[in-house]
Amino acid sequence: MKKQKNKLAGLQRRKAIAGYIFIAPFIIGFLVFMVKPFIQSLYMSFCNVEVGAGSFNPVWAGLENYNRAFRIDPEFVRLLTEEISRMVIDSLAIMVFSFFVALILNQKFKGRALVRAIFFLPVILSSGVILGLETENSLISTMQVAIEENTSGVSITAAVEEILRTAGVGVRAFEKVFEIIDNIYNIAISSGIQIIIFLSGLQTISTSMYEAADIEGCTKWESLWKITFPMISSMFLVNWVYTIIDFCMRSDNEVIEKITKVMVQQINYGFSSAMTWIYFLIVIAFVGISSLIISKGVYYYD
Question: Where are the beta strands (DSSP E) in 120-192?
Answer without folding.
Answer: none
